Amino acid sequence: MQKGEHAVLYGERGVGKTSLANMIPFLFDTEDIRVVKITCSKSDDFRSIWKRTLQNLKLQINKPAMGFGAASGKIEITLNELLNNDRKIIPGAIMTLSALLDYKTVFIFDEYDRIVNQRVKHQFADLIKDMSDNNDNLTLVIVGIGTNVNELIGDHPSIERCLKQVLMPKMSDEEIEDIISKGLKKLNMIITDNVKQLIKSYSTGFPHYTHLITKYSAKTSLQNENLTISQNHFVHAMEEILENINQSIKDAYHKAIVTSKKTSKFENVV
Ligand SMILES: Nc1ncnc2c1ncn2[C@@H]1O[C@H](COP(=O)(O)OP(=O)(O)OP(=O)(O)O)[C@@H](O)[C@H]1O
Ligand SMILES: [Mg+2]
Questions:
Q1: Distance CA 156, CA 162 (A)
Q2: What is the pLDDT of residues 166-217, one digit of tens each?
């Protein structure tokens, strides 16, 4: 990435965005580059996100000598402690605080799609523009679900130029096969080619399904005291998975009915 450039990593649900983002600290976390990763939630606003973020960033300041003969020295505080108690934090305040850092910092905001308040996305856009123009030491990486960048970050043409857009694609058949092979190798198990093909096609490029089906198939196989996963094990595993999915739909239905008001027509709608 170039100076003043920030990044947005987007893609379908469950393709592996968070897993990739989790690797970033291993690439960059050295003495002079710090990586802070924050997971956003539905209830977050600009202030709550940045309070959590700044809590991770430390600053050394001179401690004044208090009283006669007392020694002065350095103390460590977090940037969060320098925030005022106002309800509002503006992007400019984040710029001022982060300018105090004497190391480069990469901020990763994962599950950014969960932020519902569009105002927060405006504030992030303003901040990205400001950082890009004025502070080369700070890099933001926004990660979340979206079929395109605007769906994730909102429509902000002013920041398009300073954003590196990275689409996380679904996994290829080879990558899915690799997950199956590596997982089974650890268990000292093998799988018939036929079942491998089935798992690949049922995964449809989503590693979550690969893990799920392979795990259940391996479990069934082991329950039958067999180290080779066969089609029977696969079929049994699929039945078990579908039964569990049914249960979670039933649970969600029950929760929706119980938590809705008695007089509502919610049950009929659901
Ligand atoms: N490279 C990989 N190798 C093996 N498994 C992976 C890989 N990437 C992701 N996975 C697995 O796939 C599943 C989904 O991954 P992850 O949570 O990273 O996806 P996501 O795109 O962040 O999902 P969401 O859209 O729900 O936030 C997890 O179980 C994860 O362990
Ligand atoms: Mg994720």
A1: 11
A2: 999 999 999 999 999 999 999 999 999 999 999 999 999 999 999 999 999 9
Strand partners, 34: 105
CA of 211 to the centre of ligand 1 (A): 10
Residues with CB under 6 A from ligand 1: 13-19, 111, 145, 179, 207-208, 211
What is residue 87's three-state secondary structure? coil
Number of structural domains, the chain?
2
Nearest CA to ligand 1 atom 8: 16
What does the pLDDT look like over 53-73, one tens digit per residue?
999 998 888 877 777 666 678
Shortest-distance ligand to the CA of residue 207? 1
Tokens, residue 36: 């802070």
Q: Are residues 112 and 96 in the same domain?
A: yes
CATH number for the domain spanning 210: value is 1.10.8.60
Which residue is closest in CA terms to ligand 1's atom 15? 16
What is the CATH classification number for the domain harbouring 101? 3.40.50.300
CB 97 within 8 A of CB 131: no
